[in-house]
C-alpha cells in the first residue's frame, strides 16, 4: 500500500514544491491542504505541478482561501492586491483549464477516520456533516452559476452555524469555517482578524480545535492556514502550515488514523521561499 502524506500550504512556492516531491517516496500519494497559490514566487508553476500530480493519481488538493481568491479574481469579482502573485495564471494560455481544475477541487476530504481541511471545523459538525457541508459548496463551485456564489462569498456574517441557514448565508458560513477560521467561541461564533498564536485570540475566543464540545474530537484532523503555529501536534489535530512562503518550511507528514501512531509519523521538510517582505 502506498504511503500517503499530508502537505501544508504551498502558496505558489513552486521550487519548494518540486524539492518536496523529489524527497517523497516515488510511489507515495499526497493530500495538499489548500492555499495552493498566491504570495509565493511561482503560482503558475505550482498550480501546473499540482494539477499534473492530481491528474496522474498521485495527489489531491483541497481549496483554501487564497485559491478561492484566485477564482474571484478570474471571475472579475475581486482585483489583485499588493502581495498577490496570481497574475501569471491569469495571463497563461492554459488559464481556462487551470481555473476549471481549481473549481473542481474539494473543500474537505475524509476516509471515515481522518479528516483534512484547510482551516477548521465548527464544533457543531461531526465528520459526516463536515463532509456534507463541504460538498454543498463544492456543488455550487462546479455549477454554471459559480460566479454568483463567488460574488456572494465574501463577508464575516453570519459568523456562527445554524442548521436552519439557507442560501448564500449558509454557503458563506461553511466557506468561512473551512477556509478562514482560526478562533471561535466555545459555541462556535467565528472571528477572522486574529492570526497569531494559540493564546492570542480576542477575549472569549479560543482556537477552533480547543472548543470543549467539538463533535470531531475523536477524528484525526489535518489542517493548514495557520502559519504562526508552525508544525503543531496536539490530541487528534495536526497543523501543517509551517510558513513556506515566509521563509519557513514546506512540510509533509505521513498520514495516520490514530493519535498514537500520529506521534511517530514520518515528517519530511524542505526550505521555503525567502520572501522579500519577511520580517
Largest sheet: 5 strands, mixed
Strand-residue fraction? 15-25%
Nearest-integer average pLDDT: 95
SSE succession: EHEHEHHHEEHHHEEEEEEEHE
N-end to C-end Cα span: 42 Å
DSSP summary: helix tally? 9
Please estimate the helix content.
Answer: 25-40%
Q: Strand tally, please? A: 13
What gross morphology would you assign? globular
Which class do the helix and strand fractions yield?
alpha/beta
Q: Strand sequence of the main sheet, in spatial order?
A: 3-2-1-12-13
Rg to the nearest angstrom?
17 Å
List keywords for this structure.
alpha/beta; 13 strands; 9 helices
Give a written overview of the molecule:
Helices cover 30% and strands 16% of the residues. The chain is an alpha/beta fold. Helix 1 packs parallel to helix 2 and helix 6 (127-141) packs across helix 8. The N and C termini lie far apart (42 Å).
Write the layout of secondary structure elements.
Layout lengths: L3 E4 L6 H10 L5 E4 L10 H13 L3 E3 L3 H10 L12 H4 L4 H9 L4 E3 L3 E4 L9 H15 L4 H7 L14 H13 L3 E2 L5 E2 L14 E2 L12 E4 L8 E3 L2 E3 L9 E6 L4 H4 L4 E5 L8
Parallel strand pairs: 1-2, 2-3, 5-9, 9-11
Antiparallel strand pairs: 1-12, 4-5, 6-7, 6-8, 10-11, 12-13
Helix pairs in contact: 1-2, 6-8
Short structural summary:
The protein contains nine helices and 13 strands. By secondary structure, it is an alpha/beta fold.
Amino acid at each position: 500500500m502506498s504511503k500517503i502524506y499530508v502537505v501544508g500550504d504551498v502558496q505558489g512556492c513552486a521550487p519548494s514544491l518540486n524539492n518536496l516531491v523529489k524527497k517523497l517516496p516515488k510511489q507515495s500519494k499526497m493530500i495538499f491542504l489548500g492555499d495552493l497559490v498566491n504570495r509565493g514566487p511561482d503560482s503558475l508553476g505550482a498550480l501546473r505541478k499540482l494539477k499534473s500530480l492530481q491528474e496522474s493519481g498521485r495527489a489531491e488538493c483541497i481549496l483554501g482561501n487564497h485559491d478561492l481568491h484566485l477564482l474571484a479574481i478570474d471571475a472579475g469579482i475581486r482585483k489583485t492586491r499588493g502581495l498577490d502573485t496570481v497574475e501569471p495564471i491569469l495571463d497563461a494560455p492554459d488559464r481556462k483549464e487551470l481555473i476549471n481544475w481549481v473549481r473542481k477541487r474539494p473543500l474537505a476530504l475524509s476516509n471515515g477516520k481522518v479528516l483534512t481541511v484547510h482551516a477548521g471545523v465548527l464544533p457543531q459538525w461531526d465528520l459526516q456533516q463536515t463532509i456534507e457541508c463541504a460538498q454543498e459548496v463544492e456543488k455550487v463551485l462546479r455549477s454554471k452559476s459559480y460566479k454568483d456564489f463567488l460574488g456572494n462569498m465574501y463577508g464575516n456574517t453570519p459568523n456562527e452555524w445554524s442548521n436552519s441557514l439557507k442560501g448564500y448565508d449558509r454557503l458563506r458560513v461553511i466557506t468561512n469555517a473551512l477556509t478562514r477560521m482560526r478562533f471561535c467561541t466555545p459555541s462556535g461564533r467565528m472571528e477572522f482578524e486574529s492570526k497569531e498564536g494559540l493564546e492570542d485570540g480576542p477575549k472569549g475566543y479560543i482556537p477552533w480545535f480547543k472548543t470543549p464540545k467539538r463533535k470531531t474530537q475523536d477524528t484525526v484532523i489535518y489542517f493548514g492556514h495557520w502559519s504562526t503555529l508552525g508544525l503543531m501536534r496536539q490530541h487528534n489535530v495536526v497543523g501543517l502550515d509551517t510558513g513556506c512562503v515566509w521563509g519557513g518550511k514546506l512540510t509533509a507528514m505521513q498520514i495516520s488514523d490514530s493519535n498514537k501512531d500520529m506521534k511517530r509519523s514520518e515528517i519530511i521538510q524542505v526550505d521555503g521561499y525567502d520572501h522579500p517582505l519577511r520580517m
